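Please, does this match?
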Amino acid sequence: MHSVGSSSRQTTIRSSSFDTRPSSAGSPEGSSIEDDDLVLALMLQLEELGIEVDTRKGKERAGSRTDRNAALTDFKDTLEGLSTFHSDRRMAQSMAVAVHQDAVAITELVAVEAIAVRDREQVLREENMSFRATLATDFDDTASVFTDFEQHTNLPSYVFEYHSEDDESGPSSKPQIKGIQYYTGRKITCSICVTSVPHSNTIKCPCNHIYCSDCLRKYIQNAMKDESMYPLKCCRLEVPNQILSQILSPREYQEYINKGIEYSTANRLYCANKKCLKFISPDMIDEVAQAALCGSCGTAVCTLCKNEEHAGLCRKDEGLEAVMLAASQNGWRQCFKCQRMIELQHGCHHMTCHCKAEFCYVCGVEWKKCNCALFEENRLYDAAAVRVDRDAVVPLAPVIRAERIEQVQEQIRENHNCTHPGRFEKRTAYRSWGYQCDICNRRHWKYILVCPRCELMACEECRRFRV
C-alpha cells in the first residue's frame, strides 16, 4: 500500500496489490480471461487516480510541481502503459489463435480455387481457345497447403507463452520471433511447384535442387507406388534416407524401406487373400515346404501357384494361361526379373523394365548377352514417323515428311544408347495439343524438356526422377 496524505481528505491509491506480469496460464482461453480481469483492474485504478487528480486542481501554488503531483503523474503513466500493453497483448493473442485455427482452411480453399482455374485453362486450351486467368489472389505467393498440420514441426506456436524463468526484462520472445520469421523471413522458390515458401519448409537435395517439403513428400509417396522412381533420385543422385526420415512419419518411412525390399526381390510373392494382397518378405518363405506366411494377415500361400496353401497338386491358372497365349500371339515379351508383360510398339530392341532390368525384346535374355539385331526396320520407321509428326507445327508435304523421317531414322540409329548428358532444352512455344512426355505419356501444356542429342521429350518430373 502507498498512502498519499492530504489536508482535506485521506486518499489511498492501491498500487501493486496484483501482479501486473502476464500469467503463465497454459491455455489461450485462461490467459484471455485473466487479461480481461487485469485490464479491468487497471481501468478502475486509472479512474480512481483521475478523481484524485481532479480534486487537487486549484489547491496548489500556480506553476509549482510538488512531489505528490510528480508521484501521481508517474503512477498514472505506469498504469496507462500497463493497460495498453495488456490490451495489445489480448488483441495479438486473438489474432494469433485465429491464424493458428484458420490457416489450414484458408490455404486449402485457395488451393482448390487455383486447381479449378488450371483445370479450366486446360479445357480451353484443348478447345484451342485463348485464356488468361485473372484472380485477386496471387497463388505463387500463397503459403503451401498444410495437409497435415501436425507434421509441420517447424511451424512455431502463435500463442504468446510466458515462463517462470523470465527475468525482469520481460517474457521470452523466441516463439514470437519464430512466428514472425515464418511469415516475413527469407523465402525460397520450390523447383517443382514454383511457390515461395519459408526457408525452414524446404529441403535441399544432393544435386542442389531445392523443394518444398510438400512436393518432395508427394514424390516420395509416388516412388512407393511407381517402381521406376524407386529409390527416389533427383538428377540421378539418390536422396539420402536421412532427408526422407525428416519428411515422413516413422510409419511411412518404414513403408518406404519395405518397398526397397519388395522392389529388389526378383520372383515376388504376394498374399493370396483378396482383402490383403501385401508383399510377402523372402524371410517368410519356406522353400522346403513350398509355402509362405503373410506377415500382414497370416494367410498361408503356395509358392508354386501363388494361391492359398492347399493339399495335392496345384490347379491350373486359366487366367494366366490366357495371358500367356495372347502374349505368344501378339509377340509380347515377359521381363525375366519381375515377370511383367511388355509390348514394344516402335523403337529398338533394347528394353528397360520398370524394375530397371534390361533385356532384348527379341529373345528375352539379359541385354548384351545375345546376338539379335538392334532394330527392326518397320519399328524403326514407325518411331521416326511418330517423332516427325510430333514436332511438326503444321502437316508436312509427303515429300518433305519422307525426307524428314529418313533423317530421324539415322539419328535414332546413332543415339539409341544416349544417356542424356548435360542440360535438357526447354520448349515453351504454345501448342493447342500441348506436349506429350515420351516416358510417362502424360500431356503437359506449359513446357516440355528435350534432350538435345536424342530428342527425347520428358516432363519435369520424369527428367528429375526417372531419366
Remarks:
- Confidence is low (pLDDT under 50) at residues 1-29, 128-173.
- The radius of gyration is 36 Å.
